[in-house]
Amino acid sequence: MMALIISIGAAAVVYAVSILYAAIGEIFSQRAGIMNLGIEGIMLMGAVSGFLTVYHTNSLALAMLAVICTGAILGLVFAFLTVTLQSDQTVCGMAFLIFGSGLSGFIGKKVTGIATAVKFHDISIPLLHKIPVIGKIFFQQDLLVYCMYIIIPLSIFYIYKTRPGLILRALGENPAALDTAGIHVFALRYAYVIFGCAMIAISGACITLSYTNFWNEGMTGGKGWIAFSLVAFSRWNPGFAALGALLFGGISILGINLQIYLPGIPTQFYSMLPYAATVVALIITTGSFRKQHTAEPAALCQKYDREGR
Amino acid sequence: MEKKQTVPLYKKILNPIICVLLGLAFSAIFIIISGFDPLTVFAKMISYSFLNSMGLYGSINGALPLMFCGLSVALAFRMKLNNIGAEGQFAIGAVLGGWFALYGPSLPAPFGLIVMFLLCALGGGLWAAIAAALKAYWKINETIVTLMFNYIALLFLDYLCYGPWMAPKQTTAITPLIPDSMYLPGLGGTSSALILAVVIALLLQFYLQRTTGGYQISVIRDSSQSATYAGISVKRFIFIVFILSGALAGLAGFVKVTGILHRVQAQLPGGAGYTGIVVAYLSQFNPLVVILVAILFGGLQNSCAAVQIMGVPSQIATMIQGTIMIFVIAGEFLNHYKISFYREDGMEVPEQ
Amino acid sequence: MKKKLISILLVVAMAAMLLTGCSGNSGNQTKDTAKAKLDYSNIKIGEITSLVVNDGGWCQATHQSLLAAMKELGIPEENLKVIENVAEDQVSVTNAYNALASEGVNLIVGASAGYATFLSELAGKNSNIIVAQQGDQVPNLIGYQIRNYEGMFLAGYACALMSPTDTLGFAASMSEASVRGAINGYALGAKYANPNAKVKLVWANSWYDVDIETQSAKTLINQGIKYMGMEASSPAIPQTCQENGAYCIGYNVDMKDLAPKAVLFSYMWNFAPIYKDIITSVVEGKADTSKYYYEGGECANISAFNEAIVPKDVQDKVLQVKADLASGKIKVFGGELKDNKGNILVPAGQTMSDDKINTQQFLVENVIGSF
Question: In this complex, is the C-beta atom of C110 within 8 Å of any C-beta atom belonging to chain B?
């Protein structure tokens, strides 16, 4: 039983981290008032750019740099479209999704199905990994996972306890007020969208640099959408996003385990579990029967135009 | 709507065309990188997909489900309901209709089709109604609910097609043929579903433009608060719009099963629900334009096969789709710029 | 008013499109009737695949086999026209078929079982183009399928020989007949080595999903399973095994390089002999669309052993079983055979018909799991 818990836990952590980068990036972006629906496409671009760099240079550091740059460039374009040109955010996201999946397949065509020699390997943290159960679940992971352990508290602290965090929250609630206070709304939105896209790209890199060490077209397989759901589900709070990601990963693995423990039920029904659980959890956490049921930034998806002020 | 009409018609038509051309020019860069002449490639794409009967019919057949999904999304987004669940509603519509076609009593020719039409619409509508209820009563984010329901619906369709419905002596997940009486009549190389799509688009256009219901939807879109003050039941319209939208997506299942495939198959929607979102946006949620844009998209997907024979990578078509979209979005700015000369209260500020 | 104008314009435009479509109807069909005599230098072959041809899995196996067959026959590589990323969907398949037909191909290879229904309809209307289709036998198409259970029998046999426990694992993708064939072959091979061997089965319910495949492998490893078979396209399972000290048999193509410490050997599809035969028959004008190839032996091939982890005696035993399978000494689906619900599938002394094997709807006795 203990072994089962450890294994489900450890696998859930790895899975969770690979979508959390995207979810936290998206939280920052949405908190700034810009919804990015193109997560999947940007993840794929991140995945392929990281993989190509590793393939040619064998350097993980360079690869991460390439991933972040790719994300940032895409973010810049996305910000230009949504902030400067004030285009519809949903449709921009869809365009990025399609463009990203096409372009990533195109530039990764030659390296499909080849494994690289280098990837992020698991590192056991001294002492901590000896803690029963928890040690094995949390402290025998790779570098990208450990970075996430730092990012989560840091991002919560940033959003809720610092002045820039306060401004960030206001950015998504009432940009006009900020503008009158002399804060440059456009510049800040650019910054957060670019940051968000870079994080999303790292999520993609988790798949080609840590999860596995190969590339195949469309290999994110819907993770971007899951990350997107996590954002609203977490009420725009990175901490809850982490819990949600663990829950989703855990239930998905639990479903596979149930195939062994409870055979006889068509396995497709087990595969539905994580999606059904997400809906149930969403109802529980954001249903209007709760007080303060929604934390959605008021200005999310709203066009903000300085001239129209 | 008011704002849009102030954009001159020629600009409304010309802008997107210029943007599409710019998008193609941008895609041309990638075609040149892969070592081909972009003009030859584009010429081949157009001539293959639209300038001969075989290609055109292929494009239209590919477009038929996209039309219905596009209409479904367009309707929902008219009220700012983010229904991205057309894929799942499509699947459930096909499940319910397919069940009748495969296992239901056989009725004389037109009645079987009519029952199936209704069942497909009902299936899609009911599947969407769950999201509507969650939205209306508990204010649950409909984007996520409909998205998750897509996965569930597709897995359920998988279960049926890999399990109880699978045709005997089959190695793949496909059901037997439905009875002949359930085939939609053909129309040249395509299906009479095209007429159905145009009729439904016209009806939808009429509903949105000419009826009180359509007007109320646009009031809710602009501000659900002012709609409530005006005595419009927003809840009721969440249900109406969501169910109608789901029913339209369910009809994509009807068209695909009775008009094209004559079977039910695992992964039947094949992404049409998501492409429908793109189609709806590019047509500015105008039902009739949806039909045309869907055909363009059908053609684009169709031409993907033709250009691959020249050696152009298969991903090019997807990239062109994305690029064109990005440019069209950017191009909309030209229209938006006008809008920013108007105040919230609708008073017109003289230009210059 | 303008709205109306737009609507009218649109309707007119659509009508015009339909009309041009109808008027261009003639002249397309008869193009290829009078052509030069077919030989190995001018035969044109079309290939339709569901993913890219270097996907590291199924499509790659097909494509490489086809190239190998063409090379042996001296057909230049540029005579092969490939259309990738074709969904198993009527419209997509029809488009791909038409595109190839307009290129004047003589033979089309449909490399995914899901195309069978649609290609069958298309081939029925155009006898000029021969279509070879992977999967079950359907009218109008030359069908071909490989007895993958033979190769997987060897896989299960090797795993059971090496496994310290009686329980083996199997990670599968989607529940199609050939996939069940792989599972059953594996389980029966394991049973041949160890009568107590059991195979725990998990499904990904997806053809390609790195996450779920990884999770499947982890789930099996956590059951204490050290050796597993797989029917999946990504290298995620071998790599998970490698990281967790477990072993597996690669599938589709040789996966040794992707996880050198975990892959004992790989089951490899080898369609080349079948393709060679089909191409020859097309060139000689003797193609028979009612022919069905159901081949084992060298077609259900296994890769070279991974010398570092497979002991010599296991290698020898596996090769011996391979020879016994080829000579007919071992019948994989020979009686008495029960399914895992207790029904007798084949009474003692008989063997299952090919037809039943090819469309199998059961899991054998020692498989723990369902479909």
Answer: no
